[in-house]
Design brief:
By secondary structure, the chain is mainly alpha-helical. The protein is built from 4 helices and 2 strands; from the N terminus they run E-H-H-E-H-H. The chain has a two-stranded antiparallel sheet with strand order 1-2. The protein has one domain. The mean pLDDT is about 90. Helix content is about 80%, strand content about 5%. The relative contact order is 0.20.
Length: about 130
């Protein structure tokens, strides 16, 4: 099976760029504030630092993809899947008591889940438009 190359309009690229920049910004925020977030959110530094580093890597991938001359439907589909899975995992993490989150910490994760779910939906819509 071949990977369809998308001739995308500005909507998909805009969503990928916005996702990349916001992911990178949030990764920097997590790294810079990891010790400060520990007490009010209950988010251990041992969790926030690796998440911040992973987010910086993800941001780089998103921005490279957004700048590509042509978009691979498989790669964009992988972005949608990663965002959707991230959203689901953040919701689960908010309620599983795997880490000692405070009420603010749960709200923090749930708002993050809503944020990545929004990008998943925008990128999925762009993928569908590009496949027509």
């Amino acid at each position: 099976m071949t990977t369809m190359i998308l001739e995308s309009g500005p909507g998909l690229r805009t969503a990928l760029r916005a996702d990349g920049w916001s992911t990178g910004t949030f990764g920097v925020f997590l790294l810079a504030t990891a010790p400060l977030l520990r007490d009010p959110l209950g988010l251990p530094t041992a969790w926030s630092v690796p998440f911040g580093v992973a987010m910086l890597g993800g941001a780089a991938v998103l921005l490279l993809l957004a700048g590509a001359a042509r978009l691979s439907s498989r790669l964009v589909g992988a972005v949608v899947a990663v965002n959707a899975l991230s959203g689901v995992l953040m919701v689960e993490l908010a309620f599983l008591d795997l880490i000692p989150l405070t009420g603010w910490g749960r709200a923090f994760l749930l708002s993050g889940a809503a944020f990545v779910a929004t990008f998943a939906a925008l990128e999925f819509a762009g993928l569908r438009r590009g496949q027509r």
